[in-house]
Design brief:
Layout lengths: L7 E6 L2 H9 L8 E4 L7 E4 L1 H4 L9 H7 L4 E3 L3 H18 L3 E5 L2 E5 L4 H4 L2 H16 L3 E6 L2 H7 L8 E3 L5 H5 L12 H9 L5 H6 L2 H8 L3 H8 L15 E12 L2 H21 L2 E12 L4 E12 L2 H18 L5 E9 L2 E2 L9 H20 L13
Parallel strand pairs: 2-4, 7-8
Antiparallel strand pairs: 1-6, 1-7, 2-3, 5-6, 9-12, 10-11, 10-12, 10-13
Helix pairs in contact: 4-6, 13-14
Length: 389
C-alpha cells in the first residue's frame, strides 16, 4: 500500500496547443480549432473544446476531423510558442515543490507532501497554482489532487476544463467505479476488446471480476491491474527523467513510391533528429527508422552505432542503409510515413582534437547550421538534397 500521507497533484493544461493559438489570435476564440498538419493526411495534435463537441480528438486523422466538422479551423503548430508557455508553467510548479515530474509540455505530477506546512492544504496549493498559471499565461489548467499518481491523473480529467477535483481514499468507489475501464493506464484498444468479451467495461467491473476471467487477459499482471482499479499505486514522483529516444517523422501528402524521394525525405528527417540530439547535448547509440506503408502496415528497423553520434551525415548514413535493406525486401512498396530516431542516448562527447579533418569539417558544418537556425528559425537553412522538385 502507498503511504497515506502523500499529497500528489496532476496538472493538465486544457487543450494546450489550441488554447495558446486562441489566446494569441482572438479571432479564433469560440471557433472549432485544431492544431496539426496542414494536409488531410496529417493528424490532429490538439483540438479546442469547441472542436471536441463534434467528436474531434487529438491523434485523429485530419480527414476524419474535417468529416466530423466541415467548418473546422486548422492552424499549423508553433512549437516554440508552446515551449515558451511550458517553461513559464513549469517554473510556477517549482515555486511550490522541487518534486516535479514532467510528462509532456503541458502535463506534470507534483509531490507537494512537504509543501503543505509552507503553502497550506493540497487543495489550496492546487488553487494557487491554477491562479498563478492563469495570471502568467492567460491559460487554464485542470488539477487532480489525490494520495497517489494514478488517482490524481484520473481526477484531473473529472472536471475539465479549468477544473479542480479532489479524490480521497473514502471516495475511490464513488468516483472511480463508474468510470470506463480505459482510464486505467496500460489498457489499450486490444485489451479493451478482450475485456468487453468478458463484460468488463467499468473500473468496478475490473475491481470485482474473478481471477479466472482476468488471467487470460492480463496474465501475471492480473493483480496489478486489480490494484489499479482499487486506486492502489505506490509509484513515486520522479523529478528528472532522461529521454530514451529522440525522433522525427512525417506523413506525406502523397505516398512515396520512388527510392530517390524516400531518401530525400529520410535525409530531411535525419537532419531534424540530429539537430535535436545536438541541442540536447546527446548522442545516439542506435538509429531507428519507421516506415508506414500505404495500407497502414508499420515496420521499424534499428542498428547500433559505436561510438554514439549526433551528426546529420552519420545518422543519415545508418538510416539510409536500413531503408535500402528494407526496400530490397519490399520492392515497389508505397510509403505513407517515414520516421528517423536515435536511441541508447548518451551525453555527447567533447570533440576529438585528433580526429581526421573530414570528421572535424562535418562537425563544424553541423555547428554552423545549428547557430543559423537558432538565430533565424528552423526553416532558414536546409540541405540542397532535401529540396523537393
Amino acid at each position: 500500500m502507498q503511504p497515506s500521507t502523500r499529497s500528489i497533484l496532476h496538472v493538465d493544461m486544457d487543450a494546450f496547443y489550441a488554447s495558446v493559438e486562441q489566446r494569441d489570435n482572438p479571432d479564433l476564440k469560440g471557433l472549432p480549432v485544431v492544431v496539426g498538419g496542414g494536409t488531410n493526411r496529417g493528424v490532429v495534435a490538439a483540438a479546442s473544446y469547441e472542436a471536441r463537441k463534434f467528436g474531434v480528438r487529438s491523434a485523429m486523422p485530419m480527414a476524419e476531423a474535417i468529416r466530423r466538422c466541415d467548418h473546422l479551423v486548422r492552424v499549423p503548430p508553433r512549437m516554440s510558442h508552446y515551449k515558451e508557455a511550458s517553461l513559464q508553467i513549469f517554473a510556477i510548479f517549482r515555486e511550490f515543490t522541487p518534486l516535479v515530474e514532467g510528462l509532456s509540455l503541458d502535463e506534470a505530477f507534483l509531490d507537494v507532501t512537504a509543501s503543505v506546512k509552507l503553502f497550506g492544504a493540497p487543495e489550496t496549493i492546487a488553487t494557487d497554482i491554477k491562479q498563478r498559471i492563469l495570471e502568467a499565461t492567460r491559460l487554464t489548467a485542470s488539477v487532480g489532487v489525490a494520495q497517489n499518481k494514478l488517482v490524481a491523473k484520473i481526477a484531473s480529467d473529472l472536471d475539465k476544463p479549468d477544473g479542480l477535483a479532489i479524490v480521497t481514499p473514502d471516495l475511490y468507489r464513488e468516483k472511480l467505479d463508474p468510470l470506463p475501464v480505459s482510464v486505467i493506464p496500460g489498457i489499450g484498444r486490444e485489451t479493451l476488446k478482450r475485456l468487453g468479451e468478458i463484460r468488463v467495461s467499468t473500473v468496478r467491473d475490473l475491481r470485482c471480476a474473478a481471477d479466472r476471467d482476468l488471467e487470460p487477459v492480463f496474465g501475471r499482471f492480473t493483480q496489478q491491474n486489480r490494484d489499479r482499479a482499487s486506486g492502489i499505486d505506490d509509484r513515486p514522483v520522479v523529478p528528472s527523467r532522461e529521454e530514451k529516444s529522440i525522433s522525427a517523422e512525417e506523413t506525406f501528402d502523397q505516398d512515396l513510391s520512388k527510392p530517390g524521394d524516400m531518401n530525400r525525405e529520410l535525409l530531411r528527417l535525419s537532419d531534424r533528429t540530429a539537430a535535436r540530439l545536438r541541442k540536447a547535448a546527446l548522442a545516439a547509440g542506435s538509429v531507428q527508422i519507421k516506415i508506414r506503408r500505404a495500407d497502414f502496415t508499420t515496420c521499424t528497423r534499428q542498428r547500433s552505432i559505436n561510438p554514439p553520434a549526433n551528426g546529420t551525415d552519420q545518422i543519415y548514413a545508418v538510416a539510409r542503409e536500413l531503408l535500402d535493406t528494407w526496400l530490397g525486401g519490399n520492392p515497389g512498396a508505397r510509403v505513407r510515413l517515414l520516421g528517423v530516431g536515435g536511441g541508447k542516448l548518451a551525453r555527447a562527447a567533447q570533440p576529438d582534437l585528433f580526429a581526421d579533418d573530414a570528421a572535424d569539417s562535418t562537425s563544424a558544418i553541423d555547428e554552423t547550421v545549428d547557430e543559423i537556425r537558432e538565430k533565424f528559425g528552423s526553416l532558414s537553412l536546409g540541405r540542397a538534397k532535401t529540396l523537393r522538385r
